[in-house]
Write a structure and sequence with these properties.
This protein starts with a helix and ends with a helix. The chain has a domain of 88 residues. About 4% of the residues have low confidence. The protein contains 4 helices and no strands. With 142 residues, the chain is mostly helical. The radius of gyration is 26 Å and the shape is elongated. Helix 2 packs parallel to helix 4.
Amino acid sequence: MIVALILLAALVAVGLPLYLLHRRDFTRNPSTPDDNPPVGERTEECCGLHLTCDKGSLLAIPTDHPVYYDDEELDRHAGARTPDDYSPEEEEEFRDILLTMLPDDVPGWVRSLRQRGIPLPTAVREEVLLIVNESRSASAQK
């Protein structure tokens, strides 16, 4: 019982001055911005500290012009097509472009296709998701 009282007294003796110093500093400078942004607020750049990032997101669409990945011939597919309307030859055209790029370029390529109004064929979309997930898990292990 005496040990518990000694620990409580020590806690109060250390905690009270620290609390008062913190309160005094806060009242002197209450407008100090917090170093960490609020949870819902997005920063302009990806910090690289999180598993998911807007930079690698397939859904994040920047407002500037699309980036072409040596795939200008795919622009003929823009418009009112659905992912299931592609012929096997057209699917192979998408697949050839996909397999010639680096895994880190795939999310940007998909964003570019979305900006240009070109839907991915269903079979190729599954391959894209597989490549992106493998790339993310490999970068998370580094």
